[in-house]
Amino acid sequence: CCRQRLPTGWGLTALAIAAMLATAGTAQKLHGGDGVDNRARFAFGTTVVRYFPGKVLCENPAVPVLAGQSAFMLDPYSFAVISQKRPDVGADLMRQIQYREFSAILLMRDPAQPDTKDWFDVDYFGSSFRQKVLENYHIAPNSKAGNVVYIPNGQ
Question: Is the pLDDT of residue 30 over 50?
């Protein structure tokens, strides 16, 4: 009933190349397309996650995992899509940011930069993320390109 012949030979090769081409731009954009060395990014990020006690919200879910901890969020892109359909899900994250429940927020881009509005509010995390972070957190002095650390106001 459900058995279909899988592509072999050239068909399989063409399918693999098409899949690689379809994801290459996204992979580059998300993981190192900004010119920052990923090894340095991960080393710095894992240090941040280990340094701050409590929950650390990371844009890249691999960072807390490499630090030996659980990722608070596995996929900020999917989260943004889901929160458009389920505003209650997005509202909970915004509440946690507003009440400064994260000991740190580690991002690959700086939300204070004007060109990041769509990056955060549309593509990743969802509506008003950027505004909530900027209202309730401030940039840590040791932040650098590819690793922007925000800590709660008052710290």
Answer: no
CA distance 142 to 148: 8
Compute CA 27 distance to the chain's CA centroid, rounded to the nearest angstrom.
13
* 58: phi then psi, degrees, rounded to nearest 5: -115, 135
Burial class (CB in 10 A: 0-12, 13-18, 19+), 121: middle
Burial label for 86, CB within 10 Å (0-12, 13-18, 19+), is: exposed
Q: Compute the residue count for the chain.
A: 155
For the record, the structure tokens of 48 come out as 């941040």
Which tens digits make up the pLDDT trace of 111-135? 999 999 889 988 999 889 999 999 9
Q: Is the pLDDT of residue 90 over 80?
A: yes
State mean pLDDT over 48-66: 92
Contacts of 97 (CB under 8 A, 6+ apart): 57, 105, 129, 132, 133, 136, 137
